């Protein structure tokens, strides 16, 4: 007779979500986004399971000061479609950083999260701000730089 071990399942009370502040100024886009995705998924916790949202809340500040390597500012393109014929718009990374730098970080992190319902809930725990100020001062428990 085999001995079966029961894995302890984390519930919402045990999975206490902490708040992390990530300062993106001077950091490479892909490297900081992979660290943010790891925090959102909860892979840094011991109670991590792939099918539950046990991740933390992440606040990203200074998204406008993020850097990229190579010629990505001119060559990387972001596409958006309005739904109408000929409604495809194309913008470069430089144009996106000039107008909406928080969208660049959010879209990068979105590509690194699971493409399912828990992944969309994890993305809801991400807050990105282009400047150094954010309104989440009272929730912040820990800071990651």
How is the topology of this model organized?
Layout: E1 19-23, H1 29-41, E2 57-61, H2 72-75, E3 77-81, E4 88-92, H3 93-99, H4 101-112, H5 117-123, E5 126-128
Parallel strand pairs: 1-2, 2-5
Antiparallel strand pairs: 3-4
Helix pairs in contact: 1-4, 3-4
Structure characterization notes:
This protein is of the alpha/beta class and 145 residues long. The chain starts with 18 loop residues before the first strand and ends in a 17-residue tail after the last strand. The chain has helices at 29-41, 72-75, 93-99, 101-112, 117-123; strands at 19-23, 57-61, 77-81, 88-92, 126-128. 30% of the residues lie in helices and 16% in strands. Helix 1 packs across helix 4 and helix 3 packs across helix 4 (101-112). Strand 3 (77-81) and strand 4 form a beta hairpin. The protein has a domain at 19-68 and 101-128: Ribosomal protein L13 (Ribosomal Protein L13p, Chain: A, Alpha-Beta Complex). The strands form two sheets. Strands 1-2-5 form a three-stranded parallel β-sheet, covered by helices on one side. The chain has a two-stranded antiparallel ribbon with strand order 3-4. It is globular.
Give a quick rundown of the structure.
The chain is of the alpha/beta class. The chain has helices at 29-41, 72-75, 93-99, 101-112, 117-123; strands at 19-23, 57-61, 77-81, 88-92, 126-128.
CATH class of the domain at 19-68 and 101-128: Alpha Beta
Instruction: Report the average pLDDT across residues.
Output: 89
What CATH architecture label of the domain at 19-68 and 101-128 applies?
Alpha-Beta Complex
Gyration radius, in Å:
18 Å
Question: And the CATH topology of the domain at 19-68 and 101-128?
Answer: Ribosomal Protein L13p, Chain: A
Structural class: alpha/beta
* CA distance, first residue to last residue: 51 Å
Report the sheet-strand fraction: 15-25%
Major sheet: order of its strands? 1-2-5
**SSE string:** EHEHEEHHHE
CATH level 4 superfamily of the domain at 19-68 and 101-128:
Ribosomal protein L13
Helix content: 25-40%
Silhouette: globular
Count of helices? Answer: 5
């Amino acid at each position: 007779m085999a001995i079966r071990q029961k894995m302890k399942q984390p519930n919402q009370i045990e999975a206490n979500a902490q708040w992390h502040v990530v300062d993106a100024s001077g950091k490479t886009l892909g490297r900081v986004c992979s660290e943010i995705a790891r925090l959102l998924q909860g892979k840094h916790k011991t109670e991590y399971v792939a099918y539950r949202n046990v991740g933390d809340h992440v606040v990203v500040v200074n998204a406008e000061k993020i850097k990229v390597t190579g010629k990505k500012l001119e060559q990387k393109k972001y596409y958006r479609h309005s739904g109408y014929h000929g409604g495809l718009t194309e913008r470069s990374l430089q144009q996106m950083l000039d107008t909406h730098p928080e969208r660049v970080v959010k879209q990068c992190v979105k590509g690194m999260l699971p493409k399912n319902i828990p992944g969309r809930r994890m993305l809801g725990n991400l807050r990105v701000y282009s400047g150094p100020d954010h309104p989440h001062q009272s929730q912040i428990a820990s800071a990651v730089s």
